[in-house]
Structure formats: C-alpha cells, structure tokens
Please model this.
Amino acid sequence: MSMVPHGGDLAAAEARWGRPAKGWLDLSTGINPMPYPVPAIDPTAWQRLPQHDRLRALLETARACYAAPADAPIVAAPGTQILIQLLPRLRPGARVAILGPTYGEHAACWAAESATVANVGSLDEAAAAEVVVLVNPNNPDGRIIGSERLLALASDLAARAGLLVVDEAFAEVTPRGSVASEAGRPGLLILRSFGKFFGLAGIRLGFALGAAAEIDRLARLLGPWAVPGPAIEIGIAALSDQGWQDEMRARLSAAADRLTDLLTAHGFADRGGTDLFRLVEHPEAARVWDRLGRAGILVRPFPDRPALLRFGLPGNDGDFVRLAAALSVEP
Amino acid sequence: MSMVPHGGDLAAAEARWGRPAKGWLDLSTGINPMPYPVPAIDPTAWQRLPQHDRLRALLETARACYAAPADAPIVAAPGTQILIQLLPRLRPGARVAILGPTYGEHAACWAAESATVANVGSLDEAAAAEVVVLVNPNNPDGRIIGSERLLALASDLAARAGLLVVDEAFAEVTPRGSVASEAGRPGLLILRSFGKFFGLAGIRLGFALGAAAEIDRLARLLGPWAVPGPAIEIGIAALSDQGWQDEMRARLSAAADRLTDLLTAHGFADRGGTDLFRLVEHPEAARVWDRLGRAGILVRPFPDRPALLRFGLPGNDGDFVRLAAALSVEP
Model:
C-alpha cells in the first residue's frame, strides 16, 4: 500500500491513543463535515452493472457543475486517487515538476512509473519540465495560481507535447479560480474530486477533464463500469443541487473563519488553507498534536515540517466547543 | 470506452427495440437475479475515507469465504474489471495464451498493453506462453479445468517466471473447482468477483489472490482507498453470511435446471454454462434474440458465433412465465 502519509486513519490513531470515550473528532482531513444527504438509492443501482446512460448523465451533470464546456472530454473514476495513479501512463518517463509542498501522492505516483520527479517551490523552477503538476488551491497552504498564468503554461507545455495537471480537489470553495471552463484545451488536464466538498469521501468519485487524447486514454485504462451504480446516482443528485452547493459555500466560509479565530486565539499563526481546512503554525505543534490526540481529536501533522498542523472544520457547535476545550488545556 | 461486447446495456437495447411496457427482463448477464439484501449502511461509510481496519476485515472475510489460506496475499478492487485492466502490468510485453472462447476483456486488456496474445482452444496449445489466462468455470460454456492440472501448470509457469491467471468469476456455484485454497503459490493468480453470485454488480467489488510480489504490485497500482466504504461494509456482511450462500447455491441450481428444461423444450440445444447462466444453440438464434428483444427480454448474442445465445436466470416465477410466453410465440 501507499507509503505517503495521509489523514483520516482512525485505526492508526486508536493504536496510538486508544479509543476516545466521546468518539473521534476527526479533523485530519479536508472533507466537509456537513455532508450532502445521501438520497434514497434505487435497488437496481446496486444490482445491475452501472448503466451507460446514467454514466453519461453523470458526466453531463459534472460538466455543468464545473462550468466546463458542454463538449469537454471528461471521464469519471472511483475516486481521484486512481486517476492520480494512472496519470503517469499519459507521459511515460517524463521529466515532471511538482509544485510543492503539496498532496504527496502526485510525486509518489509519477516516481513509481519511472518519471523523473522534481519538487519545485515555484513555477519559475519548472521551465525544463515536460509535465507540471500543481494543486489549485493548494493543499495544505491554499496558495492559488491565477488562471491566466495556468493557461499560458498549458499552452507552452502543449507546444512541446507536455502536460499541465491542475488538481482542483478543493476548487468548489474557490470556484472563480478554476480553469475547468477551459477544459479541452491541449496541454491542460484537470482533476476534480467529489467527496471532499460534498462530504462523501467514502463513495469514491472523481473526474478528469482535458483534451480528447488524454481523456480517452484514461477511460480505456479504467475500463468499463469503473464507477459504482450508487456513486453515479448520488453524484447526479449532488452535482445538480446548486442550491445546496451555494448554501454550503457560505456555511463553510463561516466555519473556516470561526476555526481560524479559535486557532489564532490559542496562539497559532495562520499559514493559509481553504474553507475546507486551515494550516497553522505553532512552536509546540508536535505537543499540541499529541495533546489533541489524547483528547480524541485527530489533526494532520507534517513529519517534515514539524511546526505545522492542518485542521479540518468542526461540523457543529458541539465539535467547536470540544476543540476549544482541548486547546485550552495546558500541555 | 471498451470495444468488447457485453451484456447488461439496457440503454442500447432501448435504442434498438424501444422501452418495453412491462419493463426489461434482463437475462443478458450472469448476475444472480436474487440479490443479497443490502444491509443498512452506517452513514460514516459514505462520509469518511474508507478505513484501513475495515478493509482488513473485508480481506479476512473474503479469504475465509473463498477457503484461501489465512495468510494468502489478497487485494480488493472496485470490481474485477479494473484488476483485469491492471494484470498486464505484472508481465509487460509477455506472450499470453487465452483459453477461449471466453470473457473478451482478458484478450483486449493484454493486447492494449503490448502483450502478444494468442487465443487458444486448449491448454496443450499454450505451451509456449509466459502467461496463461483462463476463466474457470468458463464463461459462456461452463467448461471446468481440474485443480490438479491448473496447479501443475502454475508450477511450470512459475519455474520460468510466468503466471497462470485463473478468473473464478463464477466459482461460487462450483466451489469445489476453485484453486483459491492454493492461493499464495508462485505462478498462480486468482480473480474473484463479488457482484455476480451476490447479485450486486453495481457496487463494484472484486479480489485478486496470489503470490506476494503480484498482489503487492496490484495494490500499489490501485493506490489507497480503491474500494468505497459502503462496498467494504456490504462485502463483509455478504461474504460472511454462509447460510445465505448455501441456500442461494441450492436455489440457483434449481433455477438453472428449470431454465435448461424450458429452453430445451423450445428447441434449444444445451451447450453448457453454470448455475448463473446457460449457453444454448439454436439454428434461428439471431431471430430468437430479436423476437425476445421485441418482447422486452434481453439475452446475450455472440456476434462471431451466431447460433449461440446465453441466458441468465429469471429471478422468479413471473419472469419464468414471461420468458416461456415469449419463447412460445411463432417467429
């Protein structure tokens, strides 16, 4: 299995701290804690092979939700992760620049497929790369690179058969920063994640949009029936529910502000993030992480940057109060 | 998408024949029409990333259900199809013999990854191959190759770094023919499909069992969180429900006998199959297929063997009566 550290592993947390009496408050991911309500699922969605016409409806709904062109090539997968696993097949052995620090699986997956991977701190350092990968807004610091710069870079890369991969895993909370409206341009490949914003990471659903050559290749690598029937139905319902999405953006923005206020009041320095998570710095971050873990609250450490912690959003007043209480205990 | 013809595509059937007033009776797949009842799913299974400890529980349950050794390397995937897509990565560019005619995706997936594929009619013709692929019992004719012969072949192949792939997609209805009890031997890789026997093809769940080198590689290619949380929970419930499985084997056997009797009474010659589908021959098979389609009953034709049809099982008395009535109409 993957050697990249991730949030969300409650079994590992229990192995370290035991099972908390009040249950885990898992703030170690960027998953919305106010999930889209799973609609009733027609039994045939479980029983039959996933149906082509329903998959087509899902892809049309996703394009509309992401403001992509109606004819933009798009493919659905059982989670964005498996697309990240397959992307290196599009450019075997390429020189790849990953704009970091960022989500660790990008570098790991390219390296596992014999790419030459350079982790770079700015796009200026990526000039020699055939493939450039970035997360926008970035995880964990929320850095946003403007669309104009991204589209110019995609054009440059396309001119030499290269590829710009823009992982928009958290773009629902910064929709104006998305380049999905340009999907289909040569040299540009966009990843969208369903589970984070909709709070349904367990269903595994993600999309890639891009030029026909790349999207067709990904679809062939995934094969038929890659997305489960229930995920197709839930995806259609959620991605077409603009009212819920608009209201949720406002709620997440308010919750992120409240979290930032709480953390800064407890001596953390804000280091960015998105409305789905906040990155903070604290000289005693490792001790805070352990203290929270003992209180049943899981947050995300960064082994190579020990002063940083990433906090997901508490989903309700009770969870905010519980976090505040744990932060108030002297170490 | 895949160019291999498959059953189960109701949208394509409606494009040809229109939507039937009574709804489709889909007999075009080998999926059990008496599905395992989907248990209530804890909301956290939808919301959280799939948990490692629940995945481990699923893998242990699957090993026990398949009578595999408790330490046999095993990996779960979102459907067997994606494992079939990935298998060629285990032996790049190999000379592959596929024992056919059989499920079309095996040959297509190896060919797509630059393997040299030979479709052979008997194992004697596979002597020069580095990889041998077969489905046991075979789809569509139900041919079973004995375990002793398979294990000897796996040993031969292992001695020259080759691989025997045994796709046991329908082995639940012929459990004594399975080689899963030998999983872990070098040279032997076994595929198991969840959705067919349990009648839940929409959830997408499959397994590979084999030697550590191959299973670890497949797990790395799939990446973390490949199986959705709800599929993990449903899989644990169904694979551990021995009572349901035993009763279902008896019910499927009775239904398959009833189907065979009905088809032979209408002039079809039985050409094999399993307790999940029957293969039959009829000089007017193409006209029967069209007549059934117009009556809203979808069965599986074979474009390159036009006298054959494959019938899945009707799931209840009403569907048997409907099929009998449609077969009784003069063409």
Remarks:
- Chain A touches chain B through 54 residues (CB under 8 Å).
